[in-house]
Write the structure tokens for this entry.
Amino acid sequence: MMNRGTEIVIGPDLSYFETWMQRERTVLFFRSTEAERISLYSLLRQRNFQWITSSEEKVYDRGGWTIELEMQGDRIRRSDSGIHFVDSLWADDWQEILQGLLDFRDAKTSSLTKVELRLGSAEKTNVTSLFIGVNGRSVLNYYHGLQDAQGSRLYFEPGDYRLFVDWTENDRSHRQEIDIRVAPGDAPALILGSEGLSIQ
């Protein structure tokens, strides 16, 4: 079984696209506009997202998609993945919703200016675990520290972000928040050390 997947998260505080295959991960962080979110929500309503049903079948090693809508404290989750199969009555609606989300992702990734944030450590710093959040949302978990993160590529649309980082270094736990401003043409690096973290 190949460990690979895609996650699309769209919200008012943070939006990102993530793809992974084995230990290689690519994440693009960006800001979605209110008009974009309203357009996607309208698609969900027009295509009866809340009424879509699925059935369970005994299968093995099947991929698929799960879509979750969270709004005003309510959460609606629909899945065509694993043992869950969208019922044929709703197949066209599901496909239109999924295609709309994928089209949005593709249009964004092709039009955005992207700046890569590199990860590193200060000299003689042994980082054994690492957790990174952006704008209040926990996004990246590296249980084996920077060694685990070597296959990751983190990209940001130019703008202002707040990162919070938890890491373990030489059996000492650290947690720190830092504001970063990403500008076109930058090549920032997030450096972890025994004295804290810094952007270089």
In short: The chain has a mean pLDDT of 87. The two ends are 39 Å apart (CA to CA). The longest helix spans residues 91-111. The domain at 115-199 is CATH 2.60.40 (Immunoglobulin-like).
